[in-house]
Amino acid sequence: MSSKRILAILMVIMVAAFALAACGRPAEENQDGTTTEPVEQSITVNGSTSVQPLAEELAKAFKAKNPNIIIDIQGGGSGVGIKSANDGVVDIGMSSRELKTEEKNLKEFKIALDGIAVVLNPANPITDLTMEQIQKIYTGEITDWSQVGGTAGKITVVTREEGSGTRGAFIELTGVDNDGDKTTATAITQGSTGAVMTTVSSDPNAIGYASFGSAKENTNIKMIKVNGVEASEENISAGTFKISRPFLMLTKEEPTGAAKDFLDFILSTEGQEVVASHNYLKVK
Amino acid sequence: MKVYEKIIQLFLFLCALIAVLGVILITFFIVREGWPVIQKVGFFNFIFGRQWAPTQQIYGIYPMILGSILATLGALILGVPIGVGCAVFLAEIAKPKVANIIRPGIELLAGIPSVVYGLYGLVVLVPFIRKTFQNQGFSILAGSVILGIMILPTIINISESAIRSVPKEYKEGSLALGGSHWQAIYKVIVPAARSGIITGIILGMGRAIGETMAVIMITGNSTLIPESILSPIRTLTGNIGIEMGYASGEHQQALFATGIVLFIFIMILNVAANLIPKKVGE
Q: What predicted TM-score, i.e. pTM, was given to this entire model?
């Protein structure tokens, strides 16, 4: 058999596989939808890429109960979310920062709180760092614990991988992201919250960060104060703990129809359980 | 030819086709996904770029290429002498009783999942290095030691069968000339088996360079150009493994592009392994 013929056969198989994969999907959805009323509604959502993964999980849970509502979630960033909601091009905009005064005309729904705890090894005597110190440790300006009042020892900076939402929030809120991610290249990079905490718990000179929800469960590490404020649910809710941010959903008018149902679901006990299960803080 | 024979032949051909198809499809998708980034950044900038900052669209995988090469080299420095030594011992020196205890042990070593190696490295080796050298512990050294152990079964198995396939006459000739057993081993048997031993080493290299999970857990994954054996590194596989979870768009394509480079590495190794003459002696 000539190599051209083999190639032709391979191509045919591939095309067939794609065609099959492509027709498989809509058929399934239709089957799910037939049990309830067939009228399909759709909601468009865009904005903060930090809120996006959570919004997608919430949409999944919502869809399980309301199969004929289609939720289309796009990224773009908080700015895009606020503008899109204001211009009415989407039903719901997402933001991971507080609204400025001039943006307050939007209806805002706080769906979750994202707090990031700075964690140290329990053997480390330091209990409090300023935001500036944390920033300098992560950019590599401060490299020894004696520079921040601790016992001498080279700081092991532990960070998350690029693309991680926790890393994105951390560098943004601490100012490590100063015209681009300035995290020191010597930082130990771990691919999960668990791996960060394991590293910090086994190295007395390590510093790391993790979402507050996961860090508070772990007794092998200690959360430190930032600017003298303890990482706690109250302080994060009040906004006094500075490495935290709200997740907002925004609408131009008082929401109606499918958008209202979705927001009601998010703020229901069930929706807030989804929030908590992804290590964000519930708002209710 | 009878019809059913033709059907069976066709079926067997299909089996072969599916295996090859797997390779072709994977190659095709990796290249299709990764190529745009390499094209945009430029092949040499991608390979020799010293900075990796995917969120700022800076893609240079030089630190990772160096990381993969250094970790593999370290693994070979540790693994080859031990592996070849063990193979010689099993083939030439060990009594059958002893060999029957050691061999299943080596098979077991091959069967341990890589995440377990990684966990062992994370819990035992990294803290040990941290205490001994007063540093972060995650390092080329940690990666090399674990990879060195992981490639042992490959090297030992292939080397042992190569040594065993050396014709008996070679050894008998050497002994008949008045040489000792050790002289026969290192002057006659091992040189005669060298093509098999080198094949084993190259396949071991392939295993070391392709290993992901254990390496992610113990090398620290820092994207800096290592200064010493105690520096943390990130390997090519680690780069893909650690960032795949949240990567999207161009970032994800850059990871596929990393995959292309890794693929080229593995291809070169496999071709090298095939080029080595299979004949024993010369």
A: 0.79
